[in-house]
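Q: Sequence in, structure out?
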Amino acid sequence: MYSLSKQDEFVLSLIPKGYYLEIGASHPINWNNTYLLEQNGWQGLSIDIDRSCLRTWQEVRKNTIIIADALDIPYTKDKRIDYLSIDIEPAIQTFRCLKHIFNFNPTISIITFEHDWYYDQSTKMDSRRYLTELGFELVHADVECHLGAYEDWWVNPRTVSVQMAKEFKC
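A: Exactly. Output:
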């Protein structure tokens, strides 16, 4: 509904209520992957390096945003994250941040990973190898927007129905 490619609807179709970690939050409503989740009772934490949306964020969102470099944050050990939305620029930084988060051994159910294939071909393949090795299943590859293929959607088959995830229409 608010996200660029129905990421929010995808997540809600699999987990009605939970905890999110949003890396690369940007605007609190427009093209935001977690605004609809918050409206449906989700708790979570958003992180962005850019201060420009901070005031608007504080006015319209109840969950916390941290203005910081996501690679500098010591994430909580062994935290359960129902949804990880990860998108920072450039895509190689998104991949570095993903690996940084997994250093803290979280249990993650759903990941939408922006690889920006239209701009950076290597990050997509590297992230796919990495997440596959961790046991995640790619359920929607190369989700597209007006720029082209830009994102992969992953689920943890130990916590989410792969079949239900594959049935969702992007």
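The chain has a mean pLDDT of 92.
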